[in-house]
Design brief:
- It is built from two helices and nine strands.
- The chain is mainly beta.
- The chain has a single domain, classed as Macroglobulin (MG2) domain (Immunoglobulin-like, Sandwich), CATH 2.60.40.1930.
- Strands 2, 4, 5, 7, 8 and 9 form a six-stranded mixed β-sheet that branches.
- Strand 7 and strand 8 form a beta hairpin.
- It is globular and about 55 Å long.
């Protein structure tokens, strides 16, 4: 029986093109119902989140795509992965980086059955919140003390 349910997860909730530790998106797909076999192919797509995509036409919703062929060991474990590097994998034919600041999700599609599964949303930012706290706020608390 082919995979009928796959959980798609990313290793972080926030990524940043300009921070080396946050520019690589690692996606893990775990089969929870059904099975996969070695040689099965899946398309991993980084997409602008439908909640935040506004008026983007659907052909432009995918900013990065890769096809992954499952190995026999991954099929036995029921877990397979894919990774994307912001600033390298999102460059289009005009040499423009398509991953801009905003909310994104990962869509995994089975090449044969066209079934698809989607991750929860994550953010791509120019400056990560952690970087702002460490390098710009110098430990200042992020609480408002006055109300207007």
């Amino acid at each position: 029986m082919p995979a009928s349910n796959i959980i798609v997860e990313t290793d972080r909730q926030e990524y940043c093109k300009y921070e080396s530790s946050r520019k690589k998106i690692i996606v893990t797909a775990t089969v929870t119902q059904g099975t996969i076999s070695g040689g099965d192919s899946f398309v991993f797509s980084v997409r602008r989140s439908e909640n935040y995509s506004g008026n983007w036409p659907d052909p432009y919703a995918d900013v990065m795509k890769k096809t992954v062929t499952v190995s026999s060991q991954e099929a036995i474990n029921g877990v397979f992965t894919c990774s994307f590097t912001i600033g390298q994998d999102d460059i289009d034919s005009d040499e423009i980086c398509r991953a801009i600041s905003g909310s994104y999700c990962i869509k995994v599609t089975d090449v044969i059955s066209s079934a698809s599964w989607v991750s929860s949303d994550f953010f791509i930012a120019l400056i990560s919140a952690e970087n702002v706290r460490q390098e710009w706020l110098f430990g200042v608390t992020l609480k408002a003390l006055e109300m207007m």
